[in-house]
Write a structure and sequence with these properties.
Elements lengths: L2 H66 L1
Length: 69
């Protein structure tokens, strides 16, 4: 294999190595973002359930007050 072809092959391999490293960093970032969004989603679901429980309790008390009248 002539030196020029070997040099070209080395450059292509170096480019692939850099691309692979870039993709690994991007993948790690995307996984971190997905984890963050998942935690935020769960927090919102929990807050929604708490609000729903409070509203249901208020409605029950209002109905009880209405029946007492």
């Amino acid at each position: 294999m002539p030196d020029s072809q070997l040099q070209l092959l080395e450059e292509k391999i170096d480019t692939l190595i850099e691309l692979c490293a870039d993709l690994n960093r991007e993948n790690a970032s995307l996984k971190a973002n997905a984890n963050s969004w998942s935690k935020e989603r769960q927090n919102l679901i929990d807050k929604n359930e708490l609000a729903k429980t409070k509203v249901e309790a208020i409605i029950s008390r209002l109905k009880a007050m209405e029946q007492d009248s």
